[in-house]
Amino acid sequence: MRRPAGTRRRSAGGLAARTGTIDAVTTATRAQPSRVRRRITSLEVLCALLVLALALQGWLNRVLDVPALRTGSTVFVAVCVQAMPFLVLGVLVSGAIAAFMPAAVLRRVLPRRTALAVPVAGAAGVALPGCECASVPVARRLMQQGVPPAVAVAFLLAAPAVNPIVLVATAVAFPGRPEMVLARFVGSLATAVVTGWLWARLGRPEWIAERALRRLPATEGGSRWAVFAETARHDLVESGGYLVIGGLTAAVLNVLVPSGWLAAVGGQAALGVLVMALLAVVLALCSEADAFVAASLGALPLLPRLVFLVVGPAVDVKLIALHAGTFGRSFAVRFAPLVFVVAVGCALAAGLVFLS
């Protein structure tokens, strides 16, 4: 029996309505945001490790109670604790340069010719009372503000070695020896200036990582504090990781290098200079503390100890790691040997003039 036309139309309309309702529910269901799986953060991992360490404290004490391991851990903690306050100071200065110092100001302060700007930047290192870790982020920020790499390199080397804190520490460590303070100042400043000139002559832009040369965008007045905070945070996280790597390297090498080797080279000046230069690279001491270590090595003449004081703030395993992470590995593998040779030469020249 045929159904009336009106009934067929009502049925078709009802079916269409039900289909529309189903489509709407399906669309709404699809539109609902999917649940995002919660990720485990580094803070939670750290808390779990701390709880595990507390639970296994007795077993860890028995396993890790090894003299060499205790020595290595002491050196690692000492390197990081010495360097971290000055690294924080450096990243704060770096953030201030990025946020509050326009590139035009730097270009007006520094001479236009790189050959003249290099010694000016070296002398400006007196203004930053920090160690070598503090000068790394500042040097990178100077490059990002348009300062030539050779000029930034001169500041990088001079700041940790010629600032007043280092010179006063040297005077305290070597009482009655003002010529040692003067020799260190002249040797370190000469290292910075000569290296800057050589880098201006021989350096290539492609040797430095692009991230270290990327120009900073201009910032508006309202966002300068945000730029300062973000820049300091980024530099601290990045440089701090490589500081840990450098500290671990210094700790391992301190354990492996026998202390009796120093007594064997005490009577040989040439060998003493080479050994002390290499020891400065290996120990990775903070520039504010290395004078006291050098003063304690009384079996060596003053000249090898001066080489130790000039080379240490310029190049060591901690700095090599920081340079590789900040400026790139291509920069680090070329810069470290150059600085080592220049620092040894300038230290010998300063020693022959002031200590003979």
Automatic annotation (TrEMBL):
Membrane topology qualifier: Multi-pass membrane protein
Transmembrane domains' residue ranges: 40-60, 75-106, 150-174, 180-200, 242-263, 269-286, 293-315, 335-355
GO cellular component term, pick one: plasma membrane
Chief location bin: membrane
Location(s), subcellular: Cell membrane
One Pfam family in the UniProt entry: ArsP_1
UniProt entry keywords in alphabetical sequence: Cell membrane, Membrane, Transmembrane, Transmembrane helix
Family classification: Belongs to the UPF0718 family.
Protein name listed in UniProt: Permease
Species assigned in the record: Gandjariella thermophila
Taxon lineage: Bacteria, Bacillati, Actinomycetota, Actinomycetes, Pseudonocardiales
